[in-house]
Design goal:
Number of domains of chain A: 1
Strand order of the largest sheet of chain B: 1-2
Largest interface: A-B, 15 and 11 residues
Radius of gyration of chain B: 29 Å
Number of strands of chain A: 0
Number of strands of chain B: 2
Oligomer: heterodimer
Shape of chain B: globular
Helix content of chain A: over 70%
CATH topology of chain A: Helix Hairpins
Largest sheet of chain B: 2 strands, antiparallel
Strand content of chain B: under 5%
Largest sheet of chain A: none
Number of helices of chain B: 25
Structural class of chain A: mainly alpha
Shape of chain A: elongated
Chain lengths: 100, 624
């Protein structure tokens, strides 16, 4: 059987990639995808532990996270569409009205 | 009626509410009905109450009608209560009936003015407050009326609010009166503190029962400070001449006949206290005498018809204070009554003259009005003779009684002679300046413009009827003294005047009245304005000093107003700015820090995200 820590390492790598994506990308959609990557890295962690301890809680949590991620995607995409209406771009650097 | 004394002030108060709330919408006809009618009903109600009182209390006891218990706190209490006794009745009858006549007169005089409804609502309110003042059964209720009439005086002086001088005069009256009110208030505090009551009768009773003489003297002097404010005595008289900026009927009602005499009432009412404090009485008499002569001399050189009458009022009030000050309370009140008649008549007459002259007030541009406005002229002449002190008109009796009492007073006999002498000289000046005014206004030939001459007309009946009634009062007012009627009826403390002194005072009064009139006739009756010019040439310094009212206003400005203003400015610009600065410093610091920190808000989502992750890493670093 594959040891649990392999899953955890993979999960950490995926999370770090997600973080880098969020921090470096300008395109809103790309940032969004990076966030999805981070969410799924967390899901992987949940599943790895659920498998190790033979408990169902982790699996339930994963379903929650997926549901929330879906809702978040809906809201996020709506925001980006609205942003695109106003600015004709989804470059997040352009949406800087709330600064000093 | 006796158990509903509150109705007497409530009726004009109702008139005030009706005129004030609906007068503008319902028009001048409505106001002309409600204004005089409410004062008339109040006068009738007052008279009915007086008749019932006379029937029920033939001995002149005090009738008290408690409306409700106002303050009740431990040992201290005060009722909202009205009372009727001979002194209140005198004031009540003078205030309501003279008040009604002046309301009637105002209908004609104010007919063409803006804010007719406003005028009548103020006038009604004044009447209500004045009635509270004279009917109140304690110093506290009296104080309510006292402040109320002060407010109405302020409102009516500043009635022409688009004129700067009227507004300034109103403010001056209000501020100067505050100084007096301070005295009244402190006197009441002393009564509360030491006697536990402010009821007229109880205070007098406790004080007579033997208390520290210094306390009584202090209360009396503080009350007198209040009186000098309201009744325009030295040193607080300065507001009254300026108060002439108000409409003329107001000058007649408030600033001659009723409100300004409240101070005299205020000395006569607690006469039991004053008799325990001869020192206070002496102060009252001295101030009265000084004011009488001081204002009379100023009156000689004034050219505004209303200013002359204003200084005359100050001077006559001085006479009243001589009366109450030497302990002749009846004489003081008697002069108050006769003065209400002839001075109201003079003021209303001057109003009629101003009306006829299309608003002109300067007597140098009048003259020769005798034939043009005969009713005004005759009534004015009668009132002038009355104030000058010719027997048998009312002014003679009351003034003579005051001067004789000064001569004979038992409290300070040595000083009494001097007060009598000063008063007699003041009476000489009175006759002189009043007849100067009369000759310059009605004698000689017309000195105004042709247009004014063309417009000359006698006033409508609403104005002449009050004049005639008041002139009749000026003639017959002296009858009150027949058989010592007023003296027996008022039952105020008095003293015997020996026949020799009474004759001396009477002969002296008559002589000065004749002398003053003769001088005025010889100078102004014959030469007209030339007499004034000759005075100016012969004694320019004296003439200018009198014309500028001894520079008292300027002195007050320099000595009090300017330093106070400077001090206020210092507090405003100096102290207040410092305190504000210290407090504002905290705000500035916060704002400055915020100014720096706001640069963290880049508006760049990825920057925020970076900070968020850095934060998480730091957090994990610390706790892991």
């Amino acid at each position: 059987m594959i040891p649990t820590h392999w899953f955890l390492i993979l999960s950490a790598i995926l999370f770090a990639i997600g973080v880098c994506g969020v921090l470096t990308r300008k395109n809103g959609i790309t940032i969004f995808m990076s966030i999805e990557l981070m969410v799924n890295a967390v899901n992987l962690t949940f599943l790895a532990y659920a498998r190790q301890f033979h408990q169902i809680h982790g699996l339930i949590f994963v379903f929650f996270v997926m549901a929330i991620a879906a809702a978040e995607a809906a809201v996020g995409l709506a925001i980006f569409i609205s942003l695109f209406h106003h600015r004709a771009t989804i470059d997040v650097d352009e949406a800087n009205l709330m600064r000093w | 009626m006796l158990n509903h004394l509150w109705l007497i002030p409530a009726l004009p108060l109702l008139g005030f509410l009706l005129n004030g709330l609906f007068g503008k919408r319902l028009g001048n006809g409505f106001v002309s009905l409600v204004g005089p009618l409410s004062s008339f009903l109040s006068a009738v109600a007052g008279t009915v109450a007086v008749l019932q009182y006379h029937h029920q209390y033939p001995n002149g006891d005090r009738h008290v009608d408690v409306v409700y218990n106002w303050i009740s706190s431990g040992g201290v209490g005060a009722d909202l209560a009205f009372q009727l006794d001979p002194l209140s009745i005198v004031m009540l009858l003078v205030v309501t009936w003279v008040g009604f006549l002046i309301h009637l007169y105002s209908v004609g005089y104010m007919a063409h003015e803006e804010g007719y409804w406003r005028y009548f609502s103020y006038l009604n309110l004044f009447l209500a407050e004045m009635l509270v003042l004279v009917l109140g059964s304690s110093y506290l209720v009296m104080f309510v009326g006292w402040e109320g009439v002060g407010l109405c005086s302020y409102l009516l002086i500043g009635f022409y609010y688009d004129k700067d001088f009227a507004v300034a005069a109103g403010k001056k009256a209000f501020v100067v009166n505050r100084i007096g009110d301070f005295g009244f208030l402190v006197a009441m505090f002393l009564m509360f503190a030491y006697f536990g009551t402010v009821d007229f009768a109880k205070v007098s009773q406790i004080a007579s029962g033997g208390v520290e003489p210094g306390l009584v003297t202090a209360i009396c002097l503080l009350l007198f400070l209040g009186a000098t404010g309201k009744s325009a005595q030295i040193p607080l008289y300065v507001w009254l001449p300026d108060a002439m900026a108000g409409p003329t009927p107001v000058s007649a009602l408030i600033h001659a006949a009723t409100m300004v005499t409240a101070g005299v009432y205020m000395i006569a009412r607690p006469n039991a206290l004053y008799r325990l404090a001869p020192d206070a009485l002496m102060v009252v008499a001295i101030i009265g005498a000084l004011t009488a002569i001081f204002a009379a001399t100023i009156g000689i050189r004034q050219n505004d018809i209303k200013k002359v009458l204003a200084y005359s009022t100050v001077s006559q009030l001085g006479f009243m204070f001589i009366g109450v000050g030497v302990g002749a309370f009846t004489a003081g009140i008697f002069h108050l009554i006769t003065h209400a008649f002839f001075k109201a008549c003079l003021f209303l007459g001057s109003g009629s003259v101003i009306h006829a002259m299309s608003g002109e007030q300067d007597i140098r541009r009048m003259g020769g009005l005798w034939k043009k406005i005969p009713i005004t002229a005759w009534t004015f002449l009668i009132a002038t003779i009355a104030i000058a002190g010719f027997p048998p008109l009312s002014g003679f009796f009351s003034k003579d009684e005051i001067l004789a009492s000064a001569l004979a007073n038992p409290y300070f006999p040595d000083l009494g002679v001097w007060i009598w002498a000063i008063g007699t000289v003041a009476a000489l000046f009175t006759a002189f300046y009043m007849f100067r005014l009369f000759f310059l206004t009605f004698g000689g030939s017309f000195r105004g413009t042709q247009e004014q001459e063309h417009h000359l007309h006698e006033s409508p009946w609403t104005m002449t009827v009050p004049l005639v009634v008041l002139a009749a009062g000026s003639i017959l007012g002296g009858a009150l003294t027949v058989n010592h009627f007023l003296e027996h009826w008022l039952e105020l403390p008095t003293f015997e005047v020996s026949p020799a002194r009474a004759w001396l005072a009477m002969i002296a009064s008559t002589i000065v009245a004749i002398l003053g009139t003769w001088f005025a006739y010889a100078l102004f009756g014959r030469r007209g304005l030339a007499a004034d010019e000759r005075f100016e040439r012969r004694a320019p310094a004296v003439a200018r000093t009198l014309e500028n009212k001894y520079y008292v206003d300027e002195f007050y400005d320099e000595a009090l107003v300017t330093p106070l203003e400077r001090f206020s400015r210092f507090l405003w610009r100096g102290i207040d700015a410092l305190i504000d600065g210290i407090l504002a410093l905290g705000g500035y610091v916060v704002a400055a820090v915020g100014d720096l920190l706001r640069f963290l808000q880049t508006g760049n989502v990825r920057n925020y995200a970076l900070m968020f992750f850095v934060g998480v890493i730091v957090f994990i670093w610390i706790f892991a």
